[in-house]
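## retry 2 of 3
previous attempt timed out at serialization; input unchanged, resubmitting
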Amino acid sequence: MATRIIEMVGPEPRRRFSEDDKARIVSEAMMPGASVLEVARRHRVCTSLVYRWRRTLLRDGVASEALPLPGPAFIPVEVAGAPMVPHSEPLGPGVVEVVGPAGQRIRLAPPIDARVLKTVLAGFA
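## retry succeeded, writing output
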């Protein structure tokens, strides 16, 4: 006969947070752009608990609602020169030159009919 083991798991014991832990979590949640929900999830506490701690710390004067925002700052930027784009010499006003994959060239002078251009390009495919 096989032995069967059943593990009974109850609720986790209540966690205790020190005042320093509470202040650290609340200050993290009060940072500009921070989400109380994300901070609470990261520390595995309810959002309502973070709000309660914040209310208590504000009431006791430990925390300040107005956090200093970082001032304007310069960001280092490297300006690159204009990109080198290979180009050919202009053939003349309005002349279109099509170069095929095998090096074949076709020059079209205006007026260029769209159907003709489409047929020429299809021939290169």
